[in-house]
Design brief:
By secondary structure, the protein is mainly α. Helices cover 60% and strands 0% of the residues. The protein contains ten helices and no strands. The longest helix has 25 residues. The protein binds adenosine-5'-diphosphate and nickel (II) ion. Nickel (II) ion binds next to helix 2.
């Protein structure tokens, strides 16, 4: 089994599949998550092969775009992985990570069992915060025709994934419903440190947003 070749082949395939995605789930999101996951894996001594595979395949068949069905992604990943001469045990591990990784609402627990899963979930969540996270939130909101902000609509705490999926709230609410919660939900020490800085940047951004909204700046 040539691990380097397998990673290369899968990266090529995912790149082709996600190239023209316009909601912030494009290939470059996967590329950043892959990169960050590798960095965290090294510092946390996780199995990089599993981490890289799961990072590359984590957004294939995203559950939000399949009416909340979170089994499609893992199934697509399994089909791709089964052609690569990887052990069944490794395939199961990667698919478990892909199924558990996504955020499904503030009150929905998505606990990762393995260190490799924790690393991939952290890398994915780091890409949802900070300067990049802000850009992705508005890109996603735009793709769903959401307003940027409406002071009459207050943020909600979503207890189920169905509720989270149905939300039509303005994008600024998403900061309070998800993005600002992520810092305290990082699994690894390495990611927590990176998250602190990205979190601070979002706070500063929001302060300015509201000052400008009121015409005070
Ligand atoms: P991930 O790829 O990290 O699992 P998601 O698939 O949940 O994240 O979302 C992809 C991107 O779109 C993230 O940056 C996320 O914050 C953003 N996003 C998801 N839901 C909303 C929403 N309701 N409003 C604005 N942005 C959203
Ligand atoms: Ni992702």
């Amino acid at each position: 089994m040539n691990k380097v070749k397998i990673i290369e082949r899968i990266a090529e395939k995912v790149k082709k599949d996600l190239e023209n995605e316009g909601s912030g789930h494009d290939w470059w999101h996967v590329y950043r998550v892959w990169n960050m996951a590798r960095r965290i894996a090294k510092e946390e001594s996780a199995d990089t092969f599993i981490v890289e595979l799961a990072a590359l395949l984590h957004d294939i068949g995203d559950w939000k775009f399949h009416h909340g069905n979170d089994t499609i992604g893992p199934r697509m990943a399994r089909r791709i992985l089964s052609k690569q001469g990887i052990t069944e045990e490794m395939i199961d591990h990667v698919c478990e990570i892909i199924q558990t990784a996504p955020f499904k609402g503030a009150g929905v627990r998505t606990k990762m069992r393995t260190l490799e899963g924790k690393v991939v979930q952290d890398a994915d969540r780091l890409d949802a915060i900070g300067a990049i996270g802000i850009a992705r939130a508005f890109a996603y909101g735009g793709s769903k025709n959401r307003p940027i902000y409406n002071p009459n609509q207050k943020p909600t705490f979503h207890r189920t994934k169905e509720e989270y999926l149905k939300t039509e709230s303005p994008t600024i609410n998403h900061f309070f419903e998800k993005l600002l919660l992520l810092k305290n939900r990082m699994n690894t020490k390495t990611a927590r440190k990176i998250a602190e800085k990205r979190h601070r940047f979002m706070e500063i951004y929001l302060e300015r947003f509201f000052m400008e909204w009121k015409g005070n700046l």
